[in-house]
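Hi there,

I know you've been waiting on this one. I reran it after we fixed the sequence typo, so this is the corrected version. Both the input and the resulting structure follow.
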Amino acid sequence: MTTSRRTITATVAMGAALALLAPLAVASAVAGPNPNPGAFDVIATGLNNPRGVALGDHDTVYVAEAGLGAGNAIAGAVIGIGQTGSITRVKHAGSASPKVKRVVTGLWSTAGVQGLSIQTLGLDGIAVKGHHEIVGIMGKSNVAGTNLGSLVRIHGNKIRNLADVGAFDYAWTETYQNEAWASAPYANPYAVALVGKKTYVVDAGANTVDEVLKDGTVRVIARLSDQGTRNAAPTCIAVGPDHALYVGEYKYGSSASVWRIDPKATNPDDLNTVLNVATVWATGFKTITGCAFDKQGTFYASQYAEGNIQTAPFADPTTGRTLIGVGELEQPQGIAVANDGTIYVADHGDNQLAGQGRLVRIRR
């Protein structure tokens, strides 16, 4: 199949952009993946550091935008704190004429120096519950005067803080910082999943998987510890065909793993269980920033530094892998797969310039 590329609809209206600125079985021997490009369509542009992607009802897709820190549409991302985060909704996402609208603005965003560039954190993870209720996780932690690090519920223009996951995880890492398996205290909640009546959050800074109870109580159910570094940096979470949780990690090189957690085997009150309940399901991925399963059970992982998506069959993740979006994607982030197999992925998810992000639709 040859790659078909076209921009169908695009830029989030400038008025909305200006309103915004006003107030992320063990496969030990993995066969090399084969390219499978698919039909590639850009269905939304003008996004500010898009991260998580979630499917809603009636062919609707939501995209979390981490924002521009203290920046704006002219200056782009600027070091500091601002209310430049947002959520964009795409109705009729699978049609020839998607309808794009930025439906939530004014979310907290922070930008700081990361290596040689500026990294922005804000609304990084997103999930949809019911018709219009959105649950999101804000990145970073302990930023005074903001809800960064918090699990939030958004309904219309109302934002409710459900739990300060970042503050809890930071305190948890402080408690155990001197243990052999631990790393320096840090927290950066990055992805969220709604599974039945349960809410799970992965923290890329604390290397934890948390369960958040209805009363706002946060419990660490798993601490991921990658061999050699003590930092797995988990960035995504998806529910597998076996109802287990699958968590992807961010690492350079051919070493990023996907971890499996059986929710029934967790015990947040027992540290030994917390440290050992997660097992490696598959290896051979690179810099995972988003993950999902399709209806047939195939696993999809966005690979940030590689600029593509890698798939793995659920039955045997060591074989039958494919690469999607090679030469088309750049810094892909969150990913979601609809029931008909259509892939939606946030692209250009880490950019200092304003409005460079986009939502891509891929059909295979």
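Quick highlight: Residues 1-11, 13-29 have pLDDT under 50 and may be disordered.

Best,
R. S.
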